[in-house]
Amino acid sequence: MRDALVAAAFQLFLERGYEQTTVDDIVTLAGVGRRSFFRYFPSKEDVVFPDHERCLADMTAFLAASGEEHEPVRRVSDAARLVLRMYAENPTFSVQRYRLTKSVPGLRAYELSVVWRYERQLAEYLRERFAGRRDGTLQADVIAAAVVAAHNNALRSWLRSDGQGDASAEVDHALGYVQSAFGTGPAPRPDGNERHGDEPHGHEPGGDEPAEDVVVVVSRRGAPLWRVVQEIETALGPGT
User: Has domain 51-209 been given CATH number 3.40.50.2300?
Assistant: First the structure.
């Protein structure tokens, strides 16, 4: 019944447009009553996003099952991949929804509220893991926002291509930047291997020594050279 209502709704959205389609139109095409519709969907907007509640529940359970052995940034990145899996299960439907959402301002606002719920779930997990850290709450919120931004950037790129290509590889690539910036271990490659060599948080090829640190010094424009050198020496520490 639920799937029949979603199918009927999208058939009408594509034929007539979202705004011109009513709940009565949907239930008539599906051959059910209004009560059946509202048993599954609180509103017409909800029928456009029928799988997000399940996905949010899956993400909540996934994070709740985490242990101390799980590196936090990688764990929230893996949680975000559950959302990608939901989209990739039905590329045709996902692309149709993307196009519809782009054309209807109310649906874009609804989608933003859904994305915020995912981000809040990731942030709550990270806040617990970073409890006691200096700026732990700030770190948690920034990392959660970065994971969502990276995931959505890659996901939308895939949707704009009409679902062509490897969505998982695109998302892995984007999340790799988050892992490199905030994680404590090397970012995983799409093939499941870890990054090495001259990549962020990697190791020199063929050796066990970590890659050398990179120090960035910010100085005022026009500062004298001796002042810049002094700032570099201070950043590098004694003995340099």
Answer: no
